[in-house]
Amino acid sequence: MTAPEDTGWRRLDPPLTTPWTGEVGPANALPEYPRPQLTRPRWLNLNGVWEYAGRPSSPDEPRPSGYAERILVPFPPESALSGIGRRDEVLWYRRLVEIPPDWRDQRILLHFGAVDQTRRSGSTTSSSRRTKAATRPSARTSPTSCARRGRRS
Length: 153
Fold this sequence. Notes:
Layout (H helix, E strand, L loop, with lengths): L47 E8 L13 E5 L16 E5 L2 E2 L9 E16 L2 E17 L1 H6 L1 E2 L1
Antiparallel strand pairs: 1-2, 1-3, 4-7, 5-6
């Protein structure tokens, strides 16, 4: 699995640009708190480069064995800023996340800003969960044991 600092991401040539298009990159992909009216004292922004595998067909296909591409989250795969620039029907994202040491023995909430149809999430210490949604936010609370290990994927 790729560490967050090993990006491998490349911006594509967008069909339509703005004066700020060239300024967008992994270091500044929407770094602000996403919902200012609900600011938490401790939070971790997971925007940035993730490993990506897209499929043009059925969600019943098995999980990909490799993630050859890199996508810049939070941009959709169809956009040039994502680094993918195409539409896939089944999307697999993966990222190694380092949990801050002072979060140990705490419950951790993972918030997914947009999920279309089905989301599966898991970690190295817990089983996968499946959630059905329709392009709306969803969340998952991780068990305390995940926070003790210091890593999530």
